[in-house]
Amino acid sequence: MAFITLDRKKLKDNYNYLNNLFNDHEIEWSIVTKMLCGNKAYLKEIFDLGIKQVCDSRVSNLKAIKSVNPDIETIYIKPPPKRSIPSIVRYADVSVNTTFETVKLLSEEAQRQGKVHKILIMVEMGELREGVLREEVVDFYSRVFEMPNIEIFGIGTNLSCLYGVLPNQDKLIQLSLYKQLIENKFNKKIPFVSGGSSVTIPLIHQGLLPEGINHFRVGETLFLGTNVYDGSEFDFMHNDVIKIYAEIIELFEKPTIPQGEMGHNVEGEAFEFDQDKSHETTCRALIDLGLLDIEEKRLEPANDLCELAGASSDMIVVDLNENKHNLKVGDLLEFKTDYMGALRLLNSRYIDKRVI
């Protein structure tokens, strides 16, 4: 069985770097755990770091989080579906909201459960995903302040996840000004301006983060050491906290191009090959990992003599060229992956999850 590993020491190094960075700038932060897909062994590693607050987008994951650590503060980070509101109030201490009707239902459910439910109101700042329209923000708050059993956690925004709209100083200053406007108008305190995520971290390094931004939600940079702003990797963080290992289940020297009449593969793709290479051969390995688990374009071989040659539902083909490392059936090939690749792998019940 292919497996994925989480390196405890490297994870802690990344956490310590981010925690010191945020503490130096008086920023509170939450770890986004949705990539872990509710895996309790991995969640325990997160809690052992000392974080006080986590974010997730699945109720089942929130339930798993609370079963491992009932005292951790949880944030549900997408607008709540109406049918899930009882569970969200039960397992999420905070939820992201953009619709007054949903807040009203949260208020009613919080009363039934005898709880105070906190809400983070998201503002549309150009990404066109979730968010109250800017011209409606003040009216939205005026109505929410009247809701029983509802407490304002803060104001926030999401950028880069859908279309790649990047955060900048101007957008985040605007978000901070909304907080000041609402506090002055209603004489109410809004604790947090949650304008930060992994993509916003470079603004701290550049000295461009407005002082009003005091809350971040971070997942990818913690786990992968990624500079999400430009797709590079931070030199001062580990980018291999997570690794993938797959076993070689077949290895033969084979022609470099297919032979026979060509049609379409399982994904509906058609291929053309250079027939001048019809007499060339290469060492080809099959590994026990497939499209059901991950797209092959999300994998980066640790061995620079390996190349991904293609994939089907349950197997990926790796071109070993001359096989200079003398690999054989039963050996493991190591890979790194990106955020979406790790998310798919951790969601696969066919992949073993290990801590090292």
UniProtKB/TrEMBL annotation:
The Alanine racemase N-terminal domain covers: 7-224
* Pfam name, any one: Ala_racemase_N
Cofactor(s) the protein requires to work: pyridoxal 5'-phosphate
Among Gene3D superfamilies, the record links this protein to: Alanine racemase
Spell out the molecular function terms from Gene Ontology. alanine racemase activity; pyridoxal phosphate binding
Ordered alphabetically, the record's keywords are: Isomerase, Pyridoxal phosphate
A single GO CC term for this protein reads:
cytosol
Please name the InterPro entries in this protein's record: Ala_racemase (IPR000821), Ala_racemase_N (IPR001608), PLP-binding_barrel (IPR029066)
Kindly provide the name given to this protein in its UniProt entry. Answer: Amino-acid racemase
